[in-house]
Amino acid sequence: MSRIGNLPVPISDKVEFSINADNIATFKGEKGTNTLRIHPNISIEKSENELIIKRSDDQKSNRALHGLFRALINNAVVGVSEGYTKKLEIIGVGFRASISGDVLELNLGYSHPIFFVPPEGISMEVDTKSGKNPILIISGVDKEMVGQVSAKIRSFRKPEPYKGKGIRYLGEQVRRKAGKSAAK
């Protein structure tokens, strides 16, 4: 029995839900719109202010899809009502980030700057006024896309284990290694 799949998805009055004949669910809310293609063996019923996800039978694959689609639908509902954000911290001497128009420019110690154009639906801003390390704030409606963009930006310069320089998630702990020790 799927414990997650049987939980109803709470939906507020501000979120509009509709599903068409092609099994494409559309969620509209304050932050934006999100669509999700639903598997044919999964059905959605709307009661008063919650969505109930049901599966066609108890085959193993359908039981797995039941919990998966409940989680995806919940992520879509939360995304259009509250949105998702990820914060990246840029640590290193001379490492800078700036946004001009829609393009993110990163100077990460390479011989060239890195330019990154975010996909549609993702907004970015750089917080440099704190006087410490610049913080890059990535926000959007789609949880998967926000995570993918932040992972891509982090991959430009992952935190290294000796000095901890690089791009890391805010609050991420980086295991440090001891450097060379002098011979006695």
From TrEMBL:
* Example of a GO cellular component annotation carried by this entry: ribosome
Ranges for domain Large ribosomal subunit protein uL6 alpha-beta: 14-83, 91-169
Name the UniProt key words of this record, in alphabetical order: Ribonucleoprotein, Ribosomal protein, RNA-binding, rRNA-binding
Q: List the InterPro entries.
A: Ribosomal_uL6-like (IPR000702), Ribosomal_uL6-like_a/b-dom_sf (IPR036789), Ribosomal_uL6_a/b-dom (IPR020040), Ribosomal_uL6_bac-type (IPR019906), Ribosomal_uL6_CS (IPR002358)
Q: Which domain of life is it from?
A: Bacteria
Asked whether the UniProt record includes Transcription regulation among its keywords, one would answer no
PROSITE patterns given in the database record: RIBOSOMAL_L6_1
Quaternary data: Part of the 50S ribosomal subunit.
The UniProt similarity line reads: Belongs to the universal ribosomal protein uL6 family.
This molecule's function is given as:
This protein binds to the 23S rRNA, and is important in its secondary structure. It is located near the subunit interface in the base of the L7/L12 stalk, and near the tRNA binding site of the peptidyltransferase center.
What is the official name of this protein in its record? Large ribosomal subunit protein uL6
